[in-house]
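@channel sequence for tomorrow's demo:
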Amino acid sequence: MRVSGCWTDFELIDTSAGERLERWGDVVLIRPDPQIIWDTPREHPLWRNAHAVYHRSRSGGGHWQAFKKLPAVWDIGYKGLRFNLKMMGFKHTGIFPEQATNWDLISDNIRAQKKPFKMLNLFGYTGAATLAAAAAGANVCHVDASKGMVSWARENACASGLADKPVRWIVDDCVKFVQKEIRRGNRYDGIVMDPPSYGRGPGGEVWKLEDQIFSLLNLCCEILSEEAQFFVLNAYTTGLSPSVMQCMLSLTFKKAFGGAVFADEIGLLVTAQDIVLPCGSTAIWRRA
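structure tokens (generated this afternoon):
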């Protein structure tokens, strides 16, 4: 498992009975996590002194219960990047801190190149991978079906001092966008993809990960440049194991370009328990 262990503004403090106790800057939150099936004693005092807890509804969704006054928006940093956080309707805050290990991998790879680098970030969400790539010197195309998420990503770029970097901000269905790029003959030296398990595009297009991911990977092969360096696939769907993801990238990118594929879980250290909580999986194709 690869662990995102370089945070100072975020900490996964403790876990128990389906919930995680987290510090986001100065804000302490309790959020549900179905993987936490152990019921351990809640001895850490912040369990009883959190700013808010998210309650999941049996009918779907849920709501936040605040115990202390919270700002509508606050920010945290990671290696020079700044992220605006908000308590969203479905337990999220705007970033996935476990993905920092992938931001570092992307940044290191881009900085190692001796020439201009073009990267595509599909399902770009609030732009953390986009900002990491832009800060490393890449020309980035950021695509997400949600206009609100793209606006949030641009806010994060401004907060990070990256507003003047060469980033194209695109609101579009990711499958349709890749198809357009094939027709336009555009190519990228690296692609990052963080698709949801289920979603809808701006025109009502339905996305279901298991049904559409392999065909999208094949389409992405057509927009990689001859000297492409990496393709990164993230997934939070429990049925999509690292081994399955590794097989898919081997049958697409490795078959087309050679190189190597590896896949693993990514996770976060639980500081009060000295364990690592799995937080999804990543498969990576690399040129070398």
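heads up for whoever presents: The two ends are 21 Å apart (CA to CA).
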